[in-house]
Description:
Layout: H1 3-29, H2 45-50, E1 61-70, E2 75-81, E3 97-103, E4 106-112, E5 123-129, H3 135-142, E6 148-152
Antiparallel strand pairs: 1-2, 1-6, 2-5, 3-4, 3-6
Amino acid sequence: xxxxxxxxxxxxxxxxxxxxxxxxxLLYYGPGRKVVFEAKQPASPSQAxxxxxxxxxxxxxxxxxxxxxxxxxxxxxxxxxxxxPKAKYNGKTASCVVFKANINGKDVIRPYTPITRxxxxxxxxxxxxxxxxxxxxxxxxxxxKGDTLEIKGPSx
Length: 156
């Protein structure tokens, strides 16, 4: 088989794969169907300016776990409610916060990045995978609604 013939076949297979992927997308989502992500909307600019900050970058504060959404066998979204329902998340996109918990008599501190949009009022969300050797991730996955976790941040 010549090099030109092999190159021609490569493009045929690539085109066939792209057509199959497009057809699969249309079959799954359907034409015109929109993918919608559930999220609490960020506050309006006037609300955000007047709302107090829920987090403190210099001190840990306890936050109550208000909701757990299961994604698969080892990954969940954890929603923590602010004590003041009018308080806002004062972080920037991709800024991290720090979790603190007393696990087996030792204070364990780990950074996590929230998925909550900046200036969101009333809550803070995290997607956390449960790692078998992960001290904090196992601890968080064992929390139940109503339990509290100490959080500090956001870090710069």
